[in-house]
Amino acid sequence: INRLLWARLAFTVQDMLVGLSSLANFHHSCLDEAVVKKYLATSEKEHKVTTLLADFFENRPMSFRKIEEFPYHLAVMGKFSVESAQPSEYRLIWSRLRDCLANIDFFLEMYKDEFVSDLHDYWGIMSSVYDFAEEYSISMARYASTAASTGVTDRIVPIWHLAKCQTKIAEFFVESGRFDDAEAMYQKALESWRASEKRKKDEATVTLQYGEMILTWGKMLQAEKVLKHSVVLLEDAFGFETKECAKALYLVSEAMRFQKKEAEGIHFCERSYQILSKFIWADSKNCDLSVEGLFARCAFNLGLLNEIEGETQMAITAYKQAVKSFEKVMGNSHPSYCQALECLSNLCKSEGLLKEASENYQLLLPVKEEMSALGGSLGDITSVQNNLAAIFVKLGDLKAAEAMYRKTIRIR
Hints:
The chain is mainly α. The chain is 76% helix and 1% strand.
């Protein structure tokens, strides 16, 4: 529709429309229904309009509307072709959608909070035809061929921008559970960051991301090496007493605990705990919750390491801090809070601190019972009840012990 005709039409029906300055919608649903009945009465007509819209948005410059609409209409077209058994057409449409999503510039615009779930969904629709990791690896190799090798801008894409793209794609692979492909892309990204001038902070940050991914993957020895290297890079780029460095130190201790290297891992965890403590205690009321959450995880890990090493009093202190921080950040029904509180309760019981153990178990039990009633799971309830009943016996409160044992029998 040309602008003159649209201006006349908009003026005539202006009382029926909202959003004339950008996206026009009908003011009432009955008008929507009338238009659908007249122009979209059959699936074939709807498919024709969808095709026109896809073609329209394909030729528009990059914008929020294009990112939102273009892949959506292609996906709708593809579904229609599949349902109507038109293999040659849906292969062509999936090819267009693949080219759209695999375009690196389009990916960078779509890999944002508003669209990332749609990005996963579109690749999921085409999973029987295209492997997104393979497609992005091909696109990235093609994109890299236009990048400079020394960070200068005499070519189309500077090396630092290439590194940024590789990092984002690696993050997308991690979100999708494709750790093999993410590892390969992270390694390429780090090569590009190292080749970029004055990009030490980026190299250090991405090395930390890479190490955290390997830790999640379960490759503990490799994670330990990468994370230790990230500590060196982060200290050089940001300084020693920083949140970034504290996170890397904590993750090193995690990797070492899983390898049963508690004696060495405890030193990394203590260093992380000391750094994070300064941020927490400097402004406890206004502290960033992400820092407090990291502090809680670090305190819990420090408690585990100290307990394994036989430093029970230090473990109790660390567990108490973990419980306090987990409750502040996540609430008292979160599994991490319950896990820390149960570890604290069990250790207090084994150390003969029966009154304290009893108080902690009584805090823990109703949370576990409530979650169990809602269909969730926070571990074995009967073990908590048995431990609490045994403590009541030792404290001489036989009536409370009997009631708790009866609860245990009913559950079984």
